[in-house]
Amino acid sequence: MKTLRLLRIVFVNNPKEVDNVNDELTIWKSKEGFYLEFNTERLTIRPFKSNDLQDVFTIYDNEETCKYLLHDKWTYENRQEEFNKKLENRTLTKETMLSLAVVTNTKVIGDLSIWYTDMKDTVEIGYSFSNEATGKGYATEAVSGLVKKLFDEFGVHRIQANLDARNIASQKLCERIGMRKEAHFIQDYWNKGEWTDSFVYGMLLTDLHVRNQ
After folding, report:
1. Residue spans per domain, the chain
2. What is the DSSP letter of 52?
3. What CATH class is the domain 7-212?
4. Is residue 213 helix, strand or coil?
5. From CA 54, how far away is CA 64, in angstroms rounded?
6. Spatial distance between the Cα atoms of 158 and 22, rounded to a whole number of angstroms
7. By the 8 A CB rule, do 202 and 159 touch?
8. What is the spatial order of strands in the sheet that 7-11 belongs to?
9. Which residues, in sequence order, are CB contacts of 189 under 8 Å at separation 6+?
10. Angle subtended at Cα 164 by Cα 154 and Cα 196, rounded to the nearest 5 degrees
11. How many other C-beta atoms can be found within 10 angstroms of the C-beta atom of residue 117?
């Protein structure tokens, strides 16, 4: 497992004030909340930038990728509007979601989302990856790194993921990073014209410690 060389917390009014970040992990603290950027062995996970639009469009301009998501695939007409939401999600607070780009060799291949639930110190995560990330371990590497940072640096108590029960790839990813299947809800969610089943996966910090032993 890669050892962090440095944790740096920077107090700023605007995350754009922090440039040329080369540390293994940087948490930007502003009046609005926390910004997060870190490196794994092969990846950089950071907030989205305006020039990421085409890479992110490639991820979501795909019927198969969006099949089990709550939205349809992006179109040329709505791609800027949808992407702007990710640009705005730069802060993790009790009220706002954080969106992070997964980058390899300057190309965005994935999208991570984190938001607080109504339960104390509990966050939910979501993720999407491009087809070119399939079979290379990038998704496992990115989401594993994310959950570790959320436990170690943000002090969350519990991380959970709620997914369409038909999404086998997402189930396998949750299980690879050490999450357990905690619930199966039958036809509990109406989405895209049909009732769908949901799986809830969850993990605690103790689960992460057991996995890393």
Report:
1. 7-212
2. G
3. alpha beta
4. coil
5. 18
6. 29
7. yes
8. 7-11, 25-29, 34-39, 44-47, 98-104, 107-116, 122-129, 158-164, 194-204, 180-191
9. 164, 195, 196, 197, 198
10. 135
11. 13
pLDDT digits (tens, 9 = 90+) for 111-165: 999 999 999 999 999 999 998 888 999 999 999 999 999 999 888 999 999 999 9
The Cα–Cα gap between 108 and 59 comes to 9
Q: Please name the residue that has the structure tokens 């702007």.
A: 84
Q: End-to-end CA distance of the chain: give it in Å, rounded.
A: 11
CB 129 within 8 A of CB 69: no
* Rg from Cα positions in the chain: 17
Q: What is the 3-state secondary structure (H, E, C) of 2-33?
A: CCCCCEEEEECCCHHHCCCCCCCEEEEECCCC
Give the angle subtended at the CA of 79 by the CAs of 78 and 85, to the nearest 5°: 100
32 within 8 A of 91, measured Cβ to Cβ: yes
**Opening angle at CA 45, ends 179 and 9, nearest 5:** 100
CA 19 vs CA 15, 22, 23, 30: distances in Å: 9, 9, 11, 15
Structure tokens at 76: 């040329």
pTM score, two decimals? 0.83
